[in-house]
Amino acid sequence: MRGVExxxxxxxxxxxxxxxxxxxxxxxxxxxxxxxLPYKIIPGEVGNFRNDxxxxxxxxxERLRLAMGLPYRSAAEHAPVSDNIEAADRPETYYTPPLxxxxxFACNACHEKRVFVTDxxxxxxxxxxxxxxxxxxxxxxxxxGRSHINDDKCIKCGRCADVCSYKAIIIQERxxxxxxxxxxxxxxxxxKADIDYDKCVSxxxxxxxxxxxxxxxxxxxxxxIRAIQSGERVYAAVAPAFVGQFGPKxxxxxxxxxMKALGFADVFEVAVGADLCATQEAIDFIQEVPEKxxxxxxxxxxxxxxxxxxxxxxxxxxxxxxLTPMTLTARLIKxxxxxxxxxxxxxxxxxxxxxxxxxxxxxxDYVLTFEELQGMFDAKNIDFTTLEADPEDGLNEGTSMGRxxxxxxxxxxxxxxxxxxxxxxxxxxIEYGDGLRECKKMLMMAKAGKRNGYLLEGMGCPGGCVAGxxxxxxxxxxxxxxxxxxxxxxxxxxxxxxxxxxxKDVEE
Length: 508
Prior knowledge:
Layout: H1 7-24, H2 30-41, H3 53-67, E1 100-102, E2 113-117, H4 128-132, E3 138-141, E4 146-149, H5 159-163, E5 169-173, H6 175-179, E6 185-187, E7 193-195, H7 205-209, E8 215-217, H8 221-229, E9 233-238, H9 252-262, E10 266-269, H10 271-288, E11 296-297, H11 302-311, H12 325-336, E12 340-346, H13 350-355, H14 358-361, E13 366-369, H15 370-379, H16 400-403, H17 410-422, E14 429-434, H18 436-447, E15 454-459, H19 475-487, H20 503-507
Parallel strand pairs: 9-10, 9-12, 11-15, 12-13, 14-15
Antiparallel strand pairs: 1-8, 2-5, 3-4, 6-7
Helix pairs in contact: 1-2, 1-3, 1-8, 1-15, 2-3, 10-12, 10-17, 11-18
């Protein structure tokens, strides 16, 4: 639903905007202000979304708490929205698991999966649905002339729907569960969606596919603003998927100017870290495949690498040990700017979890999505149409290949390009997994020994980073924007980056 301004997006944008405003206006008592916000966001006496104004405000209250980084409370808990609000107003606040949360009283209790016949059934003579059913679960009801499915016999294989000439048989799945490549979402005792956090990798696909807006992630938008206001030197590291996210005419120079207006000390392009990552993975691949490892898988997508290590632990050493572009860029910033605080800003929900690892906390202090950054722009009334571009730009140091990390297949392409420059005689076979379900299939083939010598790229979000849960624009549009941005780079290969000679420095 990205790229379509639905009611869910409208509510999310309002929440991020109001939380940002609350953070910027220190004269407002936070506890009193957050109690007022559900009434500001959902005004009047009649509900606009669910036709129950009290339910809507209760849901908004929990969304506000999650946007502050606070835990979700169930409907059974009696406490004000501002309960323990002081925990959100501390200088060093990390995410407390879980990152992705189901607001149970917002959930529609959708069916996990069902197959049913619609009024479009014509009661045709061929009746192929009956012929292909392996369980004899579908029959022609001669009283109404339409097919009827016996739910007690049906195994929901969908063969009947596949052969229906009129497309009159529908397979319905719970949207969040269907989008989850880890099969981490089931049904609780009340019919509500339930997340198995032992399986979940926080990709956020459930979040963007729930049509009731019942799933939300925690945010650090409040903490980032407070850090800026406290006088900290806060630097932004922006993922290459940013192009086009804030409007078609928002150039890198305008984005940099806007972010400085928010109070950021400076802005850097994460494509620089991507160049270092590609170079590091190229070197590792040449040295280790196939002599030490049967294949090597890329490491930049945290959802993909977590999935691989969870489901295929015997091949965990085949996942590249290269630092991610986010971490490498953060280290470059902190090597050059003492006492810096680094905010990674990108399309990814799983990056929030990655930054929470003890090994990464010292490098990356905060993570925001593009959607959350837009909330900050809205809170400060940033008008890109009248904003003058920063003459220094600053977002022009990444290579074409480094910027290509944002699009599915771009990581493998960058690594192969780097390998060609290091060892022109080396031939490399690659495979790309588009979304976690495809990634699992790819690793099953690798486990069976059918991908020996390969470089495997996995992306948790179908389409790559441009399809991440924190993006604003449609995936196709973002892909085209990134491809254009790649062509504007001064260099093509990651090995041509001026920062390559600093790789050893930031690896340690």
